[in-house]
Amino acid sequence: MKTEFITRLGALSLMLLSMNGCPLWAQTLPQEQLRQAFALEKANKPAAAITALKALLDAQTLDASGTGKAWNILGLAYEDLGEFSLSQHAYEESLRILSSDPDIRNHAMALNDFGGMYVAIGQLDTAQKMKVRALGEYERVDDHGGIVRACYDLAQIAFGRGKVHEAAKFLERAMKEARSANDLDDDDWAAIASLQGWQAEVNGDHTVSIARYKQALELWRKLHGEEHPDTGWGLVLLGAADAEGGHASAGLAEMKQGVAILGRTLGEKNLRYVSVELTYARLLDKEGFHAEAAQVKAATEPVLREVYGEQCVGCTVSAAAFR
Fold first, then answer.
1. What is the rounded distance in angstroms from the CA atom of residue 280 to the CA atom of residue 300?
2. CB 280: neighbour CB atoms within 10 A?
3. Cα angle at 205 between 128 and 178, to 5 degrees?
4. Which of 84, 106, 123, 318 is the most exposed place for a label (fewest CB within 10 A)?
5. 60: part of which helix (H) or strand (E)?
6. CA distances from 165 to 118, 178, 203, 239 (A)
């Protein structure tokens, strides 16, 4: 999970990283370089983060804990680019190194993040096993923030599989643990709000669903600005809820805006973007815009087959992940 201390790094840190050969970068302490690379990844600059992380790993200036964290961030960055084979390798390196880290929270974080990659490629059984293992490790050290993140991720998986009762239990646990956590940021609260929106939607309470999705979108906008995948995703969620709640015109406009942001920030061959495009096409068709829906679908389906065929759909998890 991308923690809140990164958000306090200002634009100066990002500027330093983006300047090739900048002497200030070379003079920065390794741990600060690692935080700056994480800031780039969080700011949706995965390519720049990868360049910085590779240089940092090649320099071999980090201790074992820092090296394991660097590989974990590299896994996140490759995942953002849709390079799932490279992402898997990076996460496995991270887990191998962090398996002997005295701070079990670092291993739990890498395990939970690795599970997120399997969510992204639709392997929910593997994702759930990893996140349940991560939850157990967080529980062993009473890491309330880690428990919150693992629980809301497990709620997301359960909702995605139609296991509403199980999802509700994980979401309730996340909210309970949040009262004791002191390291949650707006990303965490936005994730929780969006899941509350999903829960209300499943229960047929469109008013609450729309309110929670609006809350999540406002938090993502505040934290990331307009041109960020999370903001685009928030608009897609709100648009779908508005349309379902009887506000078709507003919902379609929000979803169209969100899809456009995802296309610009993720790229039009990103698996998540293409999947959302098809969801948008189904909503258009449902609301009577059949010609436009058919046009979007015809343009998107071949790209989805191409992209899905290129992804790590056959990724198998190393046994090391469960040690």
1. 11
2. 24
3. 45
4. 318
5. none
6. 22, 20, 11, 25
Q: Which amino acid is at 36?
A: Q
Instruction: Check: CB of residue 245 under 8 Å from CB of residue 283.
Output: no
Enter the pTM of the model. 0.82
- Reply yes or no on whether the pLDDT at 2 is more than 60: no
In order of their start, the domains of the chain are 1-102 (1.25.40), 222-315 (no CATH)
- The angle formed by the CA atoms of residues 80, 189 and 65, to the nearest 5 degrees, is 55
Given a contact cutoff of 8 angstroms between Cβ atoms, the answer to whether 247 and 275 are in contact is no
Q: Among 244, 238, 234, 153, which Cα is nearest to 203's? A: 244
Geometric angle at alpha carbon 256, from 251 and 259, rounded to 5°: 125
Read off the tokens for 136: 């157990």
Q: Rounded to whole angstroms, how far apart are CA atoms 202 and 158?
A: 12
Report pLDDT digits (tens) over 36-88.
Answer: 999 999 999 999 999 999 999 999 999 999 999 999 999 999 999 989 999 99
Burial class from Cβ neighbours inside 10 Å (0-12, 13-18, 19+) for residue 217 reads: buried
In angstroms, what CA-CA distances link 133 with 139, 147, 171, 276, 322?
10, 11, 17, 30, 7
